[in-house]
Write a structure and sequence with these properties.
Chain A is mainly α. In chain A, 72% of the residues lie in helices and 0% in strands. In chain A, helix 6 crosses helix 8. The mean pLDDT of chain A is 85. Chain B is α/β, with parallel strands linked by helices. In chain B, a hairpin with a 2-residue loop joins strand 4 and strand 5. The radius of gyration of chain B is 19 Å and the shape is globular. The model of chain B has no long low-confidence stretch (mean pLDDT 88). Classes of the chains: A mainly alpha, B alpha/beta.
């Protein structure tokens, strides 16, 4: 679908951005019922390994393997969701983190999927971008509907006061399980797409940093509206690319403006110091996170903002 | 005159917190269609009673029989679907929902008893419309808001309402679950005298719709004015039970409220 539209580099960036958007939504669904999960990386791993086993060891077409990977992750999500029902906050974080660690250890010690050498030569899927171009609008459509539906409202109420929601007759147990399972399934899809694009993965591909990054997407984008995770994932994934473009622009700044020091050199200094492409980008994340928590604790985009915006524009709903 | 049919029947209900008996072997009957007040000094166990009947807390012993069926082992949401609803003493509204959405949460259990139906209606309905049940829910939620005089604030955030209106909204949300038994936990707390007077009418009208009411309240004017029957608790046990007249003159009640020396 996108043959020749983008060069390979842009294409690859778009694919990673898309996979991150899906991962962000996988975090957003259980979070809508108040469940904060650091297990989404683990669920991505389940989807990735399950689908890669099917395509590589059994020669099953990717489309089928993708569905199976998502389903497998969803089922495991529901299973993990059961113990998760009873606990909250930091304990839930630890439980889901523990789940991720278990998945990692299994991937590391199971020779069938490559063990410590990693899972090699996974069949490359040329159409990853096309899959994303279908799946992401589908997800946005679903969450748009969810936000306006009774089920979505029930999920919000559980997030805001679980006891009150239960007393109002909402089946908190099933709703939370559903949310956890659906989130895991979306993560599974994202993992399967990742595996067949990268063609290689090992036990550390989906580690705690992945889980934290996914959490960051949603915290920074905002979780009170379904646009938040999309915005957050795109913002953080594309940030290094914007900065790179910024450097090219800075080259055009005449030296006379900045005194003796070329502007792009200042950028290079910062770039070397922070090293955006590597682990040090976490420093940038950390700084962004601190600033966000002070200035906009509900994320960049909130539902109130959207509501106000649409009211101001349409000006009729309120009347 | 025959006794009215029983709505709620409590037998030997006990709840301990460590060594402290919040409720001790409480037995009482709430008759169908009554406004049954539950009064007593602070810490007498009134809110604990509500928590046990709605299932927020589990009882240590005793039976809770609602409309002839034991409910002690059912989850709170199932009890609400059976027809028990409540308000909270310390208001527990959903802070980020609007007034209208809050009431629609109450309606949810009648229209979407299963997650699957909720999911089906989320995915399968006309592209730019809304599910038929969603529209019905909105209509009846608006009727309830009108009943409580909150229709104008439907788009306000629940947490932005004045205190008295938040109490009314709690009642509207509870009524939206279509209960046959409504537990009101200090509905007049924080209301001004005028609002309390209105509340009098509102509670009576709810009763007249066929909802049995158990009322915990400290405003004695309100309690004596509208109750059909009153049960007095002190230290988790029942010390008196009767009509408002009988309770007013009951020596044990006067003692519990005013101390021993006040007994005439």
């Amino acid at each position: 679908m996108f043959e020749g539209l983008f060069d390979g580099y842009t294409r690859s960036i778009l694919i990673f951005a898309g996979i991150n958007v899906m991962a962000a939504y996988s975090f957003y669904v259980p979070f809508k019922t108040g469940q904060v999960s650091l297990g989404q990386a683990g669920f991505m791993a389940v989807g990735a390994y399950a689908s890669a086993i099917l395509t590589q060891k059994f020669g099953i077409p990717f489309a089928v393997a993708l569905v199976f990977g998502g389903a497998a992750s969803g089922v495991i999500g529901v299973l993990v969701g059961f113990p998760a029902l009873r606990i909250k906050g930091i304990y839930l974080l630890l439980l889901t983190l523990g789940f991720s660690e278990i998945v990692q250890v299994i991937a590391l010690s199971w020779d069938y999927v490559g063990g410590a050498q990693g899972f090699r030569q996974i069949k490359f899927n040329r159409y990853t971008l096309d899959y994303l171009a279908v799946l992401i609008p589908l997800l946005i459509w679903f969450f748009a509907r969810l936000e306006r539906s009774s089920l979505g409202r029930a999920m919000d109420s559980i997030h805001q006061d679980e006891t009150a929601a239960e007393v109002m007759g909402i089946d908190v147990v099933r709703t939370k399980l559903f949310a956890f399972g659906l989130g895991a399934m979306i993560a599974g899809f994202a993992g399967a797409l990742y595996a067949h694009h990268a063609t290689y993965m090992d036990s550390s591909t989906f580690n705690i940093m992945t889980a934290v990054e996914i959490l960051m997407f949603v915290v920074i984008g905002g979780a009170s509206t379904y646009w938040g995770p999309l915005l957050g994932a795109l913002f953080l994934t594309l940030l290094p690319e914007f900065l790179r473009t910024l450097r090219e622009w800075l080259e055009l700044v005449p030296v006379a403006w900045t005194g003796f020091f070329p502007a792009n050199r200042a950028y290079d200094f910062l770039h070397d110091f922070l090293d955006f492409e590597n682990a040090k980008r976490l420093i940038v994340y950390g700084i962004i996170l601190i600033v966000m928590m002070i200035l906009r604790p509900d994320g960049l985009l909130t539902r109130e903002q959207l509501r106000r915006f649409s009211l101001a524009r349409l000006g009729r709903r309120h009347a | 005159m025959p006794e009215p049919a029983g709505c709620l029947s409590i037998e030997g209900l006990t709840k301990r917190f460590g060594g402290f008996y919040a409720l001790n072997d409480l037995t009482m009957q709430v008759a169908q269609g009554h406004i049954h007040a539950l009064i007593g000094p602070n810490g007498a166990g009134k809110t604990t009673f509500f928590n046990l009947v709605t299932g927020v807390l589990a009882a240590d012993a005793g039976r809770i029989v609602f409309e002839g069926a034991e409910v002690a082992d059912t989850r709170p949401s199932r009890r609400t679907i059976r027809g028990i609803a409540r308000t909270f003493q310390n208001i527990r509204l959903f802070p980020h929902l609007t007034v209208l959405e809050t009431v629609m949460i109450g309606e949810h259990c009648r229209y979407y008893p299963s997650v699957w139906k909720g999911l089906r209606d989320t995915v399968l309905h006309r592209p730019f419309g809304e599910a038929a049940d969603e529209r019905t829910m909105r209509t009846s939620a608006l009727e309830l808001l009108a009943f409580f005089g909150l229709a104008d604030q439907r788009d306000a955030k629940a947490s932005d309402l004045p205190y008295g209106d938040q109490r009314k909204l709690e009642m509207a949300r509870a009524l939206a679950t279509r209960p046959r038994l409504l537990l009101l936990d200090e509905p007049a707390a924080g209301m001004n005298p005028h609002e309390t007077e209105e509340l009098d009418v509102v509670i009576t009208r709810i009763r007249d719709r066929g909802v049995t009411i158990v009322l915990v309240e400290h405003d004695m004017g309100l309690v004596m004015g509208i109750s059909d029957r009153i049960t007095v608790l002190n230290f988790g046990t029942r010390i008196a039970d009767g009509s408002p007249r009988e309770i007013q003159d009951h020596p044990a009640v006067i003692e519990a409220y005013l101390g021993e020396d006040a007994t005439p």
